[in-house]
Amino acid sequence: MRVWAVLTTALAAVCAGQSFSSLQQLGKADRDGVAQLELEQFMAHVVPETKDYAVVVQLTALSPQYKCDTCHAIDKSLRAVSRGWRRQRASRRIAFATLDVDNGEELFRKMGIDKIPRLMIFPAGRGDEAMANASPREMKLGAKNSHPAGMASRLSELFGTEIQADEPIDYMRYIIGVVGVLAAAFVARMAWRRVSSSVVGRNVWAVASITFVLVMTSGLMWNRINAPPFMGQTRTGDVVLFAPTNSQQYGVETQIVATAYAVCALCVVLLVRHVPRVPSGEQRALVAVMVVAALLLAHSYVNSVFRMKMPGYPFRLLLP
To answer: Which residues on adjacent β-strands are paired with residue 239?
Structure first.
């Protein structure tokens, strides 16, 4: 790759006297432990593949003149990871550093870097920290890896050790959350007071319960699991509404059977609640006969469907 070819070429002109303690001293000068590197320090302490420590470096542009919001976001995440690693007091030799474009503009230009920020991993080439492949690599800064926890998790996978991010407590976030919950509770309470009793009465719950039962018993879940075609078709192009076996069904069958069940349920509700309220005895008898007839026809249709799908079905009522 062009990037690493430039680094390798430049390395030949640099003394290979790497020093992990030098990076540590640079890190101590920063409140979060992120070493601020000049180009010469970067070439001496980060690039050589013979070093016995690993370095995580962000190539960035933090000066206000660049107006790089993403750079500042990644810098904030890297600092949280660096603080967490420092507080862990782990024995692993891993350093965190920054090379700003103001200090490495010439190198950035030679490397052909036209997009920043970038997070680079420079593994150890020898010692206990050595990796099988000591070549530098870039860690993609996606939506997950750009946040402190995601960045720490990804680095933990790369180095094979637990790295935790030290994120400061966002008190404003909790305050906004509490205020939001209280406001939602207040609005819900005010709305509940203004809801008519008819909306939350027994009739509404009865209709909702019956609807749920009808939908579930009509074969909806089977359709959701098996995803059958909406309807069938014969070789001549005729539409087929019912599959000819009880082990299969078409999507339209659910709607037809649910409608038949709904008619049966409606007839029962009418007979129990509304027919007795008809004032005239003759009218009451007439309505009762009509409702019972509708119930018998709907139930007969359901039985007919069952017999069609399963010829051995023993029950039959009115319809063949």
So the answer is: 233
Question: Could you tell me the sign of the dihedral formed by the alpha carbons of 189, 195, 201, 205, in that order?
Answer: negative
Phi/psi of residue 84, nearest 5 degrees: -65, -40
- Pairing state of beta strands 94-100 and 34-36? parallel
Place of tokens 């129990």: 272
The pair of three-digit structure tokens given for residue 33, joined into one six-digit string: 């432990």
Local confidence band at 12 (pLDDT 50, 70, 90 cut-offs): very low
* Closest to 99 (Cα-Cα) out of 58, 139, 65: 58
At position 143, the amino acid (one-letter code) is A
Q: At what angle do helices 281-309 and 251-269 cross, to 10 degrees?
A: 150
d(CA 114, CA 254): 59
139 — phi, psi (to 5°)? -95, 120
Which strand (E) or helix (H) includes residue 263?
A: helix 251-269
pLDDT digits (tens, 9 = 90+) for 116-125: 888 988 988 8
Q: Give the chain's count of helices (H) and strands (E).
A: 11, 7
43/10 Cα distance (integer angstroms): 8
Dist CA 269 CA 135 (whole Å): 77
Give the closest residue to 66 by CA, choosing from 118, 115, 126, 20: 115
Rounded Cα distance between 251 and 222, Å, is 9
pLDDT tens string 87-123: 888 778 888 999 988 888 888 887 777 788 889 889 8
* 314: preceding bond cis by omega (within 30 degrees): no
Q: pTM for the complete prediction?
A: 0.50
